[in-house]
């Protein structure tokens, strides 16, 4: 097992009717003027906006609103946020949304206290030393950004999607009310679940080869997601399944479930990022396409672990090692398909002649800390495996 | 799933050669005069004392020493600590040891800032509002006190063993070097493992009946402990198994793995406490005696969960539900026996005529938040089941 240091300062408030806690949490932090940041207004329809605004008013918290964060968040919105934060002298950010809104909040919270353009930090050319406090109200379980120190952003002018981590951008308080996700579409729910599964699988295949207990834990999370996302397809307002999925999403990337590992390797995200940059494909959808192919391309380098996966997740016990692994990959792909997720680049509207461009982008931006370093040629092969 | 709030401020430093980090961690906290608290001097023999003292000196940390904390920690030692803390105006406590030393540090850290006798707080007649910072260097994985807000103490004058929890007593920094446990005796290792297993089993049977993912996680921890404690019996210096066990001990009681549950019910500890008060039996040894009998006494009230346990931990698939559960309890008891742990009160030197006195003590002190409230008569029956 690797040495590790772990500390996570986020206060997680989880459960029914917890959205209204946002007011008192901000107040208790001694903050009375915040930025209220959200996406495209779905929070007007499901009552979240109303509940949050009421709680803020009741607690005497003044707020400025900024909306329009896209599903694949962009740097220009971060700049817009920073301007409002500075102009209005705001002391905190309340991010109501999923990973895109939270990551925009994180980049802006750090950017407002950074001497130069925050994009420098994404590119590894600068370091954060402070950030404005962030409070989150989660509306979709997917990226796990609600309880971690990671931030992913697209620089749309430069066609780059990059990430940074910093202890300063952990949300101070995160509210996760599973019932807030009842109104998500089937597609959003499935994309979120596949995003979480991909993070778990990455830790499992790459990071935790030396820890039995973390293998056990990650396998348990995978089985739980597989079970409950299938319930949610038919019963989007099943509270229990929403809660299971929400908990599974918080766990793998908050640090606790990756301790003893090499961190969050994000290798399949390296493969998925170009799809979102050039074709605006949601991360979950991109991952359902590329993940099985990535597994097929690399499994031989760690075959024992993939054989274990085949057994623990799909109960496969028969056949040669290769047969078992390939069967498991096929079953995973079939599972994604059964959820209605795309499983080929072609199906997602990408032309075969675009693959080289996508591979070049992925290779250029690849900052994945992975045991399998993927070069441009590897990535192209994986995209080809993902094509049909 | 139940609503929950979770926050754990402890910084966990885990791995080989981490003991020496204690000096810089204390220094970074702005503290330069501490109490160094430990047990009976085993830390002189295994190099931990030397490494810690060297690190403190190198970082210019002044320290007063206090030793002699017993395996079942007593209130008189807490009072002694408080006196030294106040007299010497110390700003922090470094607890080098297991749960007994850490819990003594916690009680003293709170007691030194409490206006009256800290025992009031254990009895539920007072509340803590601050505590001196605590730093720990763990020498035995057992109670999980290194990363939680709980403190258990015996008042030896009143024959009471009681607990309290407070956010103020989370250790600020906890150092867990699995190699520091190479020199533990087989008995200490086994007792520690059974202590951890009991905490996991309590959460599993009582707390998490509504969360699939937490059931999965707790089952994974149990299987990992069972595997690695068997390795350690023969290879006490197997780093990997020490690390697995140490990680399994930190996890179930740090809050993360009991989220969505009703907290740490500690029902079997209610049964074990009188054994330590009157017969000075180590918690792990007391638990290996009473836990299987407790299971036998209560399983019918939640039989589905016990059937699941039989399947997931011992692979039992055949027989009626009762047969499967009883078989699993027998296998658990056999497993404890195979580790050399006591499995009967008689074997531990307790007379049959003492059982009523023990039951009365357990019933009087029983503050367990449990779905099975055990009265004196229930407890007596369980002790009788545990006798031979």
From TrEMBL, chains A, B:
Pfam families: ADH_Fe_C, Fe-ADH. InterPro entries: ADH_Fe/GldA, ADH_Fe_C, BDH-like. The keyword Ion transport does not apply. It comes from the Bacteria. The keyword Acetylation does not apply. Gene3D superfamilies: 3.40.50.1970, Dehydroquinate synthase-like - alpha domain. Keywords: Oxidoreductase. Residues 9-178 form the Alcohol dehydrogenase iron-type/glycerol dehydrogenase GldA domain. Residues 189-386 form the Fe-containing alcohol dehydrogenase-like C-terminal domain. Coiled coil: none annotated. PANTHER family: ALCOHOL DEHYDROGENASE YQHD. This is NADH-dependent alcohol dehydrogenase. It comes from Clostridium omnivorum.
